[in-house]
Specification:
single chain, alpha/beta, 2,3-Dihydroxybiphenyl 1,2-Dioxygenase, domain 1, four-stranded mixed β-sheet, 8 strands, Glyas_Bleomycin-R_OHBP_Dase, Glyas_Fos-R_dOase_dom
Length: about 130
């Protein structure tokens, strides 16, 4: 059996300075510059690590989901900070703000946006308890 002390996710970016500015100033996470890249504390016991890659290609899937109490409020706040939300048609259609409204058989309420390197992130609403 594998014995581990912690787990973290990582993905590449093409510009550490832009990534640091975005994750620290726009998203409000504590960011630490290390010799290898950026350590971002997203929650008490969870970090992500961003590393520079000269031939970086953005992921074509969501690399980070940020759980929020209200997607509507999060979208409004991030939009006010200059974040542009993705818009989709079809099965997972989004409204004018970029929000896919969830419900029974539809999945969660969620909205997607990209970081400066083009990686896809989301704000997703916590399910009611």
């Amino acid at each position: 059996m594998l014995v581990y002390t912690k787990a973290f996710s990582s993905y590449s970016v093409n510009d550490l300075d832009k990534a640091k500015e975005f994750y620290e100033k726009t998203l409000g996470f504590p960011v630490t510059l290390t010799p290898e890249g950026l350590r971002i504390q997203t929650a008490k016991d969870y970090t992500i690590f961003l590393y520079p890659k000269p031939n970086h290609e953005p992921a074509t899937f969501t690399v980070l989901n940020l759980q929020v109490m209200s997607v509507e409020a999060a979208v409004d706040a991030l939009t006010a900070s200059g974040v542009k939300f993705e818009h989709y048609d079809g099965e997972i259609a989004t409204d004018a703000k970029g929000i896919a409204h969830g419900g029974p058989g539809k999945g969660p309420t969620i909205a997607w946006f990209t970081d400066p390197a083009g990686n896809i992130l989301s704000v997703v609403e916590n399910p009611p308890v």
